[in-house]
Amino acid sequence: MFIFDKGSRVQKVTEGVQFYEPDILCSSYLFSGDLEINIVIDYERPGFGVALIECDEREPDKMNNYSNLYLGKLGMNDYRVYRKRLGVQKEIYSGGGIFEPEIKNASLTFKLEGHNFSVIYHTLDSNNNPRDVSIGTTHLDKLFTVYRIGFYSNADNIIRSVNFKSMVPKHWRTSVENSMGGRISFSRDTITFENCEHDAEVEQDYIAVPAGKHYFKYRTVEVNGKNDIKGYIFPSKLNTADGDAGLEDDKKNVLNKDGSFYLKAPQEMSIKFKGKNGAVKDVAIMDNDYSSFIETDDKPYHQDGGSIRIKLTGYKKIKWRAKIDRVPEWLDYTQSCPYAIAHNDKKRFSLNDMNVSLGKYYKYVYDIKTRTLQSLEDTNAIQVITERRLEPNDQDIITIMDNMNMTMTSLEFIAQDGTSTDKVIQKTVKKYVPSSITSPIIILNSKKEPLDLSASYREVVVPHKKLVFFRRTAPFFLGENIPVNIHMIKVYGIPLESKIDKEATSIQKAASSYIEIPYKNIEFFGNFFSIKDENLKRYAYIVAEYDSIEDFYYEFTNYERETFPGDQKEFFLTKQISKNNMDVIMYGIREGVKKHKKYFYRVPGKSAMNSIDYYADEYDVISGSFFDIGVDTGRIYLHPEIQKKYQELIIDYLKKDSYTLNYRDDVRQYELDVVSDEQKLDIHYDMNSDTMSPGYVRTQIDDLKSKYIVARKRK
């Protein structure tokens, strides 16, 4: 059983692994979160148990000499749990049981669920029916972030088989009974198969799939340098007429070579993955083979293709510029086209209708009065390609760019008076004033009330490459935080004979020769990283190259950023939301995710002012369909599906009646970025006809006596 570290007092026998002295046999796997261990033993002498051994997050391969652990131990018809902390041992649970020595092929399950640590004995009743006996459950006061599993045993006991199931989510079933020491583990959007001697299996049943053509999509990557994972999809309710053939995965699989399958009618389907080593990521059933993976909740979820619905009241024209990359296949011409450049409930326009091609930008103009849609060449000159007319309907609504993969660069609304607003790029109004202005700049609304000068800011990173040199024997510790979720860290080995310049800012200048170490051979643990390389001795130095995020400048913004605990059903924003630009972005951070308070306002660039990539290692972007906004009150109410799902919620929102002031070096002017629900705004500041701001001189004239004061223009 190759899953165990060497050095324990055990020996390999025909039945499995036998202890010849009391000892702890430690698994080589690292775990976090919930875990289920299914184990079969020959229980010859009293004394067998499972230990949860804490590991250092920075150096997970070290276990601190077993200084912190929990041990659940079976004896002679009793079960005890011990807590060892910093070398001091304490019994925290004691109870009776029916488990005693001289039992062959005893099947046990040790389970960690939240803070509860339990053991179950799988036996038979007097009628030889399966019976599960709970031997004991203990509440653990502290959970280990990273831990390993140790098997304690007295001499002569034999471990026949061990299987691990880590954090099995809802709706999934696993089978590792024949894997002989392997495990299946689950992490975010990933299923990992590891060290299975025979195929292990993961399956989810009764997935409701509509009629039509679909694609079963997933990615696989290597684990332990191997990847043999294969996916299957088949009806959950099998045809009994198929006999035994209907039970074989390859024969009941409905997948085509391109990963597609077709259903004549809606049906409940099952998906399965099986293999020995490898990881499966981003599993989804999609209508289009080009669609991107979208993370969903624990409930079955269907997401329709995106579209833009426009209320036409008050406008005379709608204009937009877009490039269509892909559209769904139109297989059944008895049905309406599954996508549309534009449509109402009476008429749909396809690519052929508008005579446009994929992968090319076009302009589109919809005239509301005549209900005509034009496609135009993407030039300054007006070159109409095709003109089509929508049939009249009762609703004053048009839907554009429905169910397609596309890029839109502008969406322009032209009002009856001819004024135009681009809803894609114009969430705010930008004004510029000369840099020579030294007086206050005040913006007034139609009621002569001043707007709020926004004090909200972001720390915009000025990226630059940084090299850190390590001796090959030294701990590989980076002195600053590196968000590995968005910044790739490259690691190089510099051969012994190379010439080295440690002051250089690029690897090309730093070493006369270097070898990039494959990313799969590197593991990160916070600011630490380790390298799996048998040839590490050939390097004089190990060099880490990354984009430093420590240099930044301040940028003021109209987006307020607030944080709230995730256990609240509702909360109130401190500022009012702009009604015309009700742009609210909500992020959810799950329990246990590492956060960096220092980088709460740190963002990668001006184009990513609402990013929290530097603050949280992992997060979810929460759809607006999961919360309600009270615009006037600032109240946000969470729907039950996400209540208490997250440890922390981050909200970015555009503030009503606010403006920012930032200096733009490229034009040598101040940029005013204004958010207001009103169209008419007045900007006030002091400036003479020569574009210079007037100077002010302190006269030191006291006002105790009546005097004449004469003001002359400065020469």
Can you give a write-up of this model?
It is a single chain. Strands 1, 2, 4, 9, 10, 11, 13, 15, 16, 18, 20 and 22 form a twelve-stranded mixed β-sheet that branches. Strands 3-12-5-6-7-8 form a six-stranded antiparallel β-sheet, with no helix packed on it. The chain has five domains: 10-167, Jelly Rolls (Sandwich), CATH 2.60.120.560; 191-286, Jelly Rolls (Sandwich), CATH 2.60.120; 308-426, no CATH class; 427-463 and 549-684, no CATH class; 464-542, no CATH class. It contains three helices and 54 strands. The protein is globular. The chain has 715 residues and is an all-beta fold.
Provide the fold topology.
Elements (H helix, E strand, L loop, with lengths): L9 E3 L4 E3 L3 E4 L8 E9 L4 E7 L13 E7 L3 E8 L2 E9 L6 E11 L2 E9 L5 E10 L7 E7 L4 E9 L5 E4 L7 E5 L2 E5 L5 E10 L2 E10 L8 E6 L13 H4 L7 E4 L3 E9 L2 E9 L21 E4 L3 E12 L13 E4 L4 E2 L1 H4 L6 E7 L4 E6 L6 E6 L7 E6 L2 E11 L4 E3 L6 E6 L7 E3 L7 E2 L3 E5 L2 E8 L18 E6 L11 H4 L4 E2 L5 E4 L2 E4 L7 E10 L3 E5 L2 E7 L4 E3 L11 E6 L12 E2 L16 E3 L4 E4 L4 E4 L9 E7 L3 E7 L4 E7 L6 E3 L31
Features:
single chain; 715 residues; mainly beta; Jelly Rolls; 12-stranded mixed beta sheet; 6-stranded antiparallel beta sheet; 2% helix
